[in-house]
């Protein structure tokens, strides 16, 4: 709900793409992109009752924060994913992640 980094590291597109369907947005090559991890984490299209604090919502699915599930990206994803992810998690909850 409250990712420490609201915006991920800036990206630059390398080719044209379209998001949001045929009437969506054209994103041209060499466009700087800011991914809003905070807004993604509160998107009602991905999360039921997104502003509610229900940790148990994670008990019924496999969604985690390690960059493979794009509806939850507190540590980013892809080539620029946080390299300190494992250290951060170990510090926060005192265990080793696989
Ligand atoms: C719970 C703790 C942490 C969180 C939530 C966090 C979050 C993030 C996020 C969101 C990014 C941007 C990723 C992206 O744009 O895809 C990032 C990048 C980065 N983080 Fe962390 N981080 C944490 C801990 C750490 C720690 C402990 C270290 C170092 C010991 C670290 C070092 C870095 C570095 C160097 C980058 C930049 C990587 C690059 O430029 O490609 N982070 N982090």
Automatic annotation (TrEMBL):
Binding residues annotated for heme, in chain numbering: 82
Subcellular location field: Membrane
Superkingdom, taxonomy of origin: Eukaryota
Keywords: Heme, Iron, Membrane, Metal-binding, Oxidoreductase, Transmembrane, Transmembrane helix
Gene3D superfamilies documented for this protein: Cytochrome P450
Gene Ontology, cellular component aspect: membrane
Cofactor: heme
Keyword Cell division attached: no
GO-annotated molecular function: heme binding; iron ion binding; monooxygenase activity; oxidoreductase activity, acting on paired donors, with incorporation or reduction of molecular oxygen
Keyword Metal-binding found: yes
Main location: membrane
Topology with respect to the bilayer: Single-pass membrane protein
InterPro entries: Cyt_P450, Cyt_P450_E_grp-I, Cyt_P450_sf, Cytochrome_P450_71
Alphabetical list of Pfam families matching this protein: p450 (PF00067)
Family, similarity comment: Belongs to the cytochrome P450 family.
Official protein name in the record: Cytochrome P450
Record organism: Liquidambar formosana
């Amino acid at each position: 709900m409250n990712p420490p980094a609201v915006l991920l590291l800036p990206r630059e597109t390398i080719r044209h793409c379209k998001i949001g369907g045929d009437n969506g947005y054209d994103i041209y090559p060499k466009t700087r992109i800011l991914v809003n991890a905070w807004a993604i984490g509160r998107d009602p299209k991905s999360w039921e009752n997104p502003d509610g604090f229900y940790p148990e919502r994670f008990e019924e699915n496999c969604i985690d924060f390690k960059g493979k599930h794009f509806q939850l990206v507190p540590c980013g994803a892809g080539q620029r994913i946080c390299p300190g992810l494992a250290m951060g998690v170990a510090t926060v909850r005192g265990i080793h992640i696989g």
